[in-house]
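Suppose you are handed a protein chain with no further information: no name, no annotation, nothing but its sequence. What can you learn? This example shows the usual starting point.
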Amino acid sequence: MNRTERLYKICRLLRQAGRMRFGDLQAELEVSKATLKRDLEYLRSRMQVPIVWSRDDGCYRLLEPDPQHATQHELPGMWFSAAEIHALLTMQQLLSDLDVGAVLTPHLSPLIDRLKILLGDADQPTAQLRQRVRIVSLARRPVEPRHFQHLGMALMQRQRVRMVYAARSTDLQTEREVSPQRLVH
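A reasonable first move is to predict its three-dimensional structure. Written in C-alpha coordinates, the prediction is:
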Protein backbone atom coordinates (compact mmCIF):
# COMPACT_ATOMS: atom_id res chain seq x y z
CA MET A 1 0.00 0.00 0.00
CA ASN A 2 1.49 3.38 -0.97
CA ARG A 3 1.39 6.51 1.18
CA THR A 4 -1.64 8.06 -0.50
CA GLU A 5 -3.67 4.90 0.05
CA ARG A 6 -2.58 4.82 3.71
CA LEU A 7 -3.61 8.43 4.28
CA TYR A 8 -7.05 7.80 2.84
CA LYS A 9 -7.35 4.57 4.84
CA ILE A 10 -6.44 6.32 8.12
CA CYS A 11 -9.19 8.89 7.54
CA ARG A 12 -11.69 6.20 6.55
CA LEU A 13 -10.89 4.07 9.62
CA LEU A 14 -11.23 7.00 12.00
CA ARG A 15 -14.47 8.09 10.36
CA GLN A 16 -15.96 4.57 10.52
CA ALA A 17 -14.78 3.56 13.98
CA GLY A 18 -15.09 6.98 15.57
CA ARG A 19 -11.91 6.43 17.58
CA MET A 20 -8.98 4.03 17.39
CA ARG A 21 -5.96 3.15 19.49
CA PHE A 22 -2.53 3.67 17.94
CA GLY A 23 -1.76 -0.06 18.02
CA ASP A 24 -5.03 -0.91 16.26
CA LEU A 25 -4.32 1.63 13.51
CA GLN A 26 -0.81 0.27 13.16
CA ALA A 27 -2.06 -3.32 12.89
CA GLU A 28 -4.78 -2.39 10.40
CA LEU A 29 -2.34 -0.52 8.15
CA GLU A 30 0.51 -3.02 8.64
CA VAL A 31 3.13 -0.28 9.04
CA SER A 32 5.85 0.55 11.53
CA LYS A 33 5.28 2.83 14.49
CA ALA A 34 7.45 5.53 12.90
CA THR A 35 5.56 5.38 9.60
CA LEU A 36 2.19 5.76 11.31
CA LYS A 37 3.49 8.69 13.37
CA ARG A 38 4.75 10.39 10.18
CA ASP A 39 1.44 9.77 8.40
CA LEU A 40 -0.61 11.16 11.30
CA GLU A 41 1.63 14.22 11.51
CA TYR A 42 1.41 14.74 7.73
CA LEU A 43 -2.38 14.53 7.84
CA ARG A 44 -2.53 17.06 10.67
CA SER A 45 0.05 19.59 9.54
CA ARG A 46 -0.04 19.44 5.77
CA MET A 47 -3.52 18.18 4.96
CA GLN A 48 -5.15 19.94 7.93
CA VAL A 49 -7.15 16.86 8.92
CA PRO A 50 -8.51 17.48 12.44
CA ILE A 51 -7.09 14.32 14.05
CA VAL A 52 -6.83 14.60 17.84
CA TRP A 53 -5.42 12.37 20.57
CA SER A 54 -7.69 11.77 23.54
CA ARG A 55 -5.82 11.07 26.77
CA ASP A 56 -8.98 9.90 28.50
CA ASP A 57 -9.39 6.78 26.38
CA GLY A 58 -5.96 6.64 24.67
CA CYS A 59 -7.43 6.89 21.17
CA TYR A 60 -7.17 8.99 18.05
CA ARG A 61 -10.34 10.48 16.62
CA LEU A 62 -11.49 13.05 14.10
CA LEU A 63 -12.65 16.32 15.60
CA GLU A 64 -16.36 16.94 15.13
CA PRO A 65 -17.08 19.49 12.37
CA ASP A 66 -17.96 23.01 13.45
CA PRO A 67 -21.80 23.30 13.44
CA GLN A 68 -21.56 26.75 11.82
CA HIS A 69 -19.67 25.39 8.83
CA ALA A 70 -21.16 21.88 9.03
CA THR A 71 -18.82 20.41 6.46
CA GLN A 72 -17.02 17.16 7.04
CA HIS A 73 -13.32 17.29 6.30
CA GLU A 74 -12.33 15.53 3.09
CA LEU A 75 -8.90 14.86 1.70
CA PRO A 76 -8.31 16.58 -1.62
CA GLY A 77 -8.94 14.61 -4.77
CA MET A 78 -5.81 15.93 -6.47
CA TRP A 79 -2.31 15.16 -5.28
CA PHE A 80 0.61 17.18 -6.58
CA SER A 81 4.28 16.34 -6.68
CA ALA A 82 6.74 18.99 -5.50
CA ALA A 83 7.58 19.84 -9.14
CA GLU A 84 3.89 20.34 -9.95
CA ILE A 85 3.44 22.60 -6.93
CA HIS A 86 6.48 24.62 -8.04
CA ALA A 87 4.91 24.97 -11.47
CA LEU A 88 1.60 26.16 -9.99
CA LEU A 89 3.36 28.69 -7.76
CA THR A 90 5.37 29.92 -10.74
CA MET A 91 2.17 30.35 -12.73
CA GLN A 92 0.67 32.27 -9.83
CA GLN A 93 3.72 34.54 -9.76
CA LEU A 94 3.41 35.13 -13.48
CA LEU A 95 -0.29 35.93 -13.14
CA SER A 96 0.32 38.30 -10.26
CA ASP A 97 2.89 40.18 -12.37
CA LEU A 98 0.26 40.57 -15.10
CA ASP A 99 -2.59 41.29 -12.66
CA VAL A 100 -2.10 45.06 -12.51
CA GLY A 101 -5.47 45.85 -10.93
CA ALA A 102 -5.17 42.94 -8.43
CA VAL A 103 -8.32 41.36 -9.82
CA LEU A 104 -7.17 37.73 -9.56
CA THR A 105 -4.87 37.88 -6.54
CA PRO A 106 -7.56 37.80 -3.80
CA HIS A 107 -9.23 34.82 -5.47
CA LEU A 108 -5.98 32.87 -5.86
CA SER A 109 -4.66 33.52 -2.34
CA PRO A 110 -6.35 30.51 -0.66
CA LEU A 111 -4.95 28.16 -3.31
CA ILE A 112 -1.46 29.63 -2.99
CA ASP A 113 -1.56 29.33 0.82
CA ARG A 114 -2.65 25.69 0.50
CA LEU A 115 0.15 24.91 -1.96
CA LYS A 116 2.71 26.47 0.37
CA ILE A 117 1.41 24.30 3.23
CA LEU A 118 1.73 21.19 1.05
CA LEU A 119 5.36 22.06 0.27
CA GLY A 120 6.13 22.64 3.95
CA ASP A 121 8.29 25.17 5.74
CA ALA A 122 11.55 23.65 4.60
CA ASP A 123 10.86 24.52 0.99
CA GLN A 124 13.27 27.30 0.03
CA PRO A 125 13.21 26.75 -3.76
CA THR A 126 9.73 28.32 -3.95
CA ALA A 127 10.95 31.65 -2.63
CA GLN A 128 14.05 31.44 -4.83
CA LEU A 129 11.92 30.60 -7.83
CA ARG A 130 9.77 33.68 -7.33
CA GLN A 131 12.88 35.86 -7.17
CA ARG A 132 14.73 34.23 -10.03
CA VAL A 133 12.12 33.81 -12.78
CA ARG A 134 10.56 36.80 -14.53
CA ILE A 135 8.36 36.97 -17.62
CA VAL A 136 8.46 40.29 -19.41
CA SER A 137 5.90 40.65 -22.17
CA LEU A 138 7.33 43.72 -23.94
CA ALA A 139 9.11 43.11 -27.27
CA ARG A 140 9.41 39.42 -26.69
CA ARG A 141 10.64 37.03 -29.33
CA PRO A 142 9.16 33.58 -29.88
CA VAL A 143 10.90 30.87 -27.84
CA GLU A 144 10.38 27.14 -28.10
CA PRO A 145 8.74 25.91 -24.86
CA ARG A 146 11.25 23.05 -24.65
CA HIS A 147 14.12 25.58 -24.48
CA PHE A 148 12.39 27.54 -21.73
CA GLN A 149 11.76 24.32 -19.80
CA HIS A 150 15.35 23.10 -20.25
CA LEU A 151 16.81 26.40 -19.07
CA GLY A 152 14.30 26.60 -16.22
CA MET A 153 15.36 23.18 -14.93
CA ALA A 154 19.03 24.17 -15.19
CA LEU A 155 18.28 27.36 -13.26
CA MET A 156 16.49 25.54 -10.45
CA GLN A 157 19.14 22.81 -10.22
CA ARG A 158 21.95 25.37 -10.49
CA GLN A 159 23.50 23.58 -13.46
CA ARG A 160 25.52 24.99 -16.32
CA VAL A 161 24.09 24.87 -19.84
CA ARG A 162 25.93 24.52 -23.13
CA MET A 163 24.21 26.32 -26.02
CA VAL A 164 24.76 27.68 -29.50
CA TYR A 165 24.28 31.45 -29.64
CA ALA A 166 23.48 33.30 -32.86
CA ALA A 167 24.28 37.03 -32.83
CA ARG A 168 21.40 39.00 -34.32
CA SER A 169 23.60 41.67 -35.89
CA THR A 170 26.19 39.43 -37.59
CA ASP A 171 24.34 36.09 -37.64
CA LEU A 172 27.59 34.56 -36.36
CA GLN A 173 27.09 31.42 -34.26
CA THR A 174 29.22 30.62 -31.24
CA GLU A 175 29.01 27.89 -28.65
CA ARG A 176 28.76 29.06 -25.05
CA GLU A 177 28.52 27.49 -21.63
CA VAL A 178 26.50 29.59 -19.21
CA SER A 179 25.39 29.45 -15.62
CA PRO A 180 21.79 30.66 -15.55
CA GLN A 181 21.23 33.15 -12.72
CA ARG A 182 17.85 34.52 -13.70
CA LEU A 183 15.50 33.46 -16.45
CA VAL A 184 13.67 36.23 -18.30
CA HIS A 185 11.15 35.19 -20.95
